Task: structure prediction
Amino acid sequence: MVEGIVYRYRTGLAWRDLPPVFGPWQTVWTWHRRMAFDGTWDRVAAMITAAADAAGLIDWSLSVDSTIARAHQHATNITRLTGGWIELQESAGRAA
Result:
């Protein structure tokens, strides 16, 4: 099961596309979900990180990227009130 979970994350494929050698994808997904829910993956990551840090295999330097990714004004899902009846009423009060 663990090999199937690791394979899925390493390759980035969908759970349904997991090769048959790992068994039914639903079983692998269920194991992953259970281990994520009970904190098993967090404990595994903490133990591996601690061991690698103790062996001096981790470089803890930090890199900050200030790249800005701008989206088009219509890329948002927020309702916009432009050109409608409400704006006309608001602008009428300002014009007076």
Remarks:
- The chain has a mean pLDDT of 83.
- The two ends are 72 Å apart (CA to CA).
- The CA atoms of residues 16 and 40 lie 23 Å apart.
- Helices lie at 2-11, 25-37, 40-54, 85-95.
